[in-house]
Amino acid sequence: MRILWFTNVPLQPLLNHWKRSTTGTGFWMHALIAPLRQCPQLHRIGVGYAGTDCPDEHNEIDGVDYFSIKKSHIVQRTRLGLRYSENRHLQNFVDIVDKFRPDVIHIHGTEYF
Q1: What residues are paired with 44 via a beta bridge?
Q2: What is the DSSP letter of 109?
């Protein structure tokens, strides 16, 4: 089985790879990877993250595939005020799914982009 997560924050291995400090939240998500890896049916884990603070790249770190998408701040004016337009990044997520070919997709942090 191949599992693909989309997260709202970069996980610890990506922060380490980018040589960034470990501040913020979401560390519990990385903690879930170790018990998942004990599952004999699990073949591969992938994690996708989009943020303004990251490059577009794919890294394999400790047997986990990390996909990062450089997100731009595009502000769109609407009748109701300002709104961030994230639809242009949807194809990036589709590309990750096509490349990784997961059996299961889980989205962490659905309250954010």
Answers
A1: 2
A2: -
